[in-house]
Design brief:
It is built from 6 helices and no strands. With 103 residues, the protein is mainly α.
């Protein structure tokens, strides 16, 4: 399983990152006092699919989204591909005018 540092630094392999995600799903489910069966029912996925996610990090993106919603973590998905923070005032200005029609 990938460590948080490996994930942040980009040195974790995709497989290790997905395994870490599965582990976090399992931890969140346990913290909420849910069984795999209960979470599977809430999320609309099979127990086998949930087990694959939790233990092997194998799941479709759709499954990850469904499980995240069932765990109350769907707002966390917004951060996945969030727009990067501005580094300069020029970037702010360019973003505010780029693509807008001139009058």
């Amino acid at each position: 399983m990938a460590t948080p540092l490996e994930i942040i630094s980009g040195t974790a392999t995709p497989k290790r990152t997905l395994e870490a995600l599965g582990s976090r799903v399992r931890a969140r489910r346990s913290a909420l006092g849910l069984t795999q069966e209960q979470l599977a029912e809430r999320s609309g996925v099979s127990v086998a699919t949930l087990r694959n996610l939790e233990h092997r990090g194998r799941a479709t993106l759709k499954t990850v989204v469904e499980v995240a919603r069932a765990l109350g973590c769907d707002s966390d998905l917004d951060a996945l591909f969030a727009k990067p923070a501005y580094r300069t005032i020029e970037e702010v200005v360019a973003d505010g005018t780029e693509g807008k029609p001139r009058r």
